[in-house]
Design brief:
The complex is a heterodimer of chains A (191) and B (269). Chain A has 191 residues and is an alpha/beta fold. Chain A contains six helices and nine strands. Chain A has a single domain, classed as 3-Layer(aba) Sandwich (Rossmann fold). In chain B, 43% of the residues lie in helices and 19% in strands. Chain B has a seven-stranded mixed beta sheet. A three-stranded antiparallel beta sheet of chain B has the order 3-5-4. The chains are: A alpha/beta (191), B alpha/beta (269).
């Protein structure tokens, strides 16, 4: 993966059904103090399934923080979009939450965060779309690419639910298709 | 796509010509909303939207309504209402008179939820519930006590999860696709337009609820509004915010005590 010379400041990973197992294979293996901010937007059940952030923290060496309104972004940390809110970037330093209607039956919606990241971080954005059973995320990847950023989709063959990455591939909204090992090494070679 | 500069231009136009101040709103959310209105109303260019807003008062009204309407639910986050029911409402019981303010109440679902809990605690009779919103259109709905009937199953589940002891269906009657709440629940509700950006404190309250409104404001405006709430709270009054909102970064933090883990704070002086 040498094509895109972006130096990312922000990596956003979007996932739905079948994405947690991928994250558990990737996140614990990230090198310490990775030089970007990592954001997770996962389709979750409504209500307060606060276990997810605990579960991620138990597995990851980097701290995982469930975002509160106007939380500050820091490099080398993992941020989880809270259940029942869309996660936006107010500027390069600040998150912002929004409880407007669901997009693709989802709140948080992956498209919403991808689009906001593309708007604020432009070419310094990497979007990664994982396993899932609906069509969220692909439009957002298109916006990241239009802004000069990098769009990666999980290889549908390696996904428990291939629909979501396959939609992005069918629409041609991607730069690279990567299996789980390739996603991990990609994240670890970013500088 | 509307650019940041174009968004700022629009907001300045609206402020200069109509006095609505959105300058302190969160840019990211506003941008999404303006973009949505732009697409929904099929404007061919930004210039056309700007011209429409400068020349068509009726359209401006529609635009402001679309920009400010917020989604709301009855008994959203049932654990929050459980805490309100078990720890906040009982401590209001000894007061001769209870004043509650729902700031940014939208179509009123949270007002109805609190009214139900006050009635169950036998306190509704001596309560007054003020519902305010910037958007006048939604307030008509609050006064009529209307809720979309297709939501009632979910609200009923929320109500039970919040510790509601009664049969939820006794609180409303179905009427042409809408649920109408019992009149008892809305007769203690007073509605008024109020702009958190520019209007001042108008009474003293024992409980202020403002849930998922501050997320739409930037930090400066949040501080301004929290200060307004502070001025409007009685000495041991309660402030309830949305589940991801906090007073942690504001000057209020030192003399308010949080009822953990909920986003409810009690003034301590």
């Amino acid at each position: 993966m040498e094509k895109n010379p972006v130096t990312p400041k922000l990596v956003v990973i979007g996932g739905s059904a079948g994405s947690l197992t991928v994250l558990f294979q990737v996140l614990p293996e990230l090198r310490p103090s990775f030089p970007y901010t990592l954001v997770l937007v996962l389709h979750r059940k409504g209500g307060s399934d606060s276990h997810l952030v605990d579960l991620l923290n138990a597995k990851c060496t980097a701290p995982v923080i469930e975002v509160e309104d106007k939380e500050a972004l820091q490099i080398g940390q993992i941020y989880l979009a809270p259940s029942d809110y869309h996660l936006l970037l107010e500027d390069r330093a600040t998150f912002c939450l929004d409880d407007d209607e669901k997009i693709h039956y989802s709140r948080p919606s992956i498209d919403v965060t991808f689009e906001s990241a593309a708007h604020v971080f432009g070419k310094d954005t990497v979007g990664i779309l994982l396993s899932g059973a609906n069509d969220d995320g692909s439009e957002g990847l298109a916006r990241i690419r239009a802004a000069g950023g990098m769009a990666i989709v999980q290889d549908p063959n390696s996904a428990q639910m291939p629909v979501m990455p396959q939609v992005a591939i069918d629409k041609n909204h991607y730069d690279y298709v990567a299996d789980i090992d390739q996603i991990r090494s990609y994240l670890n070679q970013l500088s | 796509m509307i650019t940041d500069t174009e968004l700022t231009t629009l907001l300045e136009d609206i402020y200069r010509q109509y006095g609505y101040d959105f300058i302190g709103y969160s840019k990211s959310s506003l941008h999404r909303r303006v973009q949505r209105i732009f697409a929904m109303d099929k404007f061919p260019s930004f210039a056309e939207l700007r011209y429409k807003l400068l020349t068509d008062d009726l359209y401006v009204k529609h635009f402001i309504e679309e920009l400010t309407v917020n989604v709301t639910e009855m008994f959203r986050d049932p654990h929050f209402y459980k805490t309100l029911r078990e720890q906040v409402i009982p401590s209001l019981a000894s007061k001769p008179f209870i004043r509650i303010w729902h700031a940014g109440c939208s179509t009123g679902e949270e007002i109805f939820s609190v009214a139900i809990m006050l009635q169950e605690a036998g306190l509704l009779e001596k309560s007054l519930i003020y519902g305010t919103d910037l958007n006048a259109k939604v307030l008509a709905n609050v006064r009529r006590g209307l809720v979309p009937i297709d939501q009632m199953k979910k609200y009923s589940e929320n109500y039970i999860a919040s510790g509601g002891p009664k049969d939820f269906s006794q609180y409303y009657t179905a009427h042409y696709g809408q649920a109408i709440l019992n009149q008892k629940l809305t007769e203690k509700v007073i509605t008024s337009t109020h702009n958190l950006v520019s209007d001042s404190s108008f009474n003293e309250f024992d409980l202020i609820l403002c849930r998922n409104v501050l997320i739409y404001f930037n930090k400066n405006l949040q501080d301004h509004v929290l200060d307004l709430f502070d001025k409007s709270l009685s000495p041991l009054g309660f402030l309830a915010l949305g589940s991801k909102e906090t007073i942690r970064f504001s000057g209020l933090a030192t003399y308010y005590q949080q009822i953990q883990p909920e986003k409810i704070w009690r003034k301590t002086q």
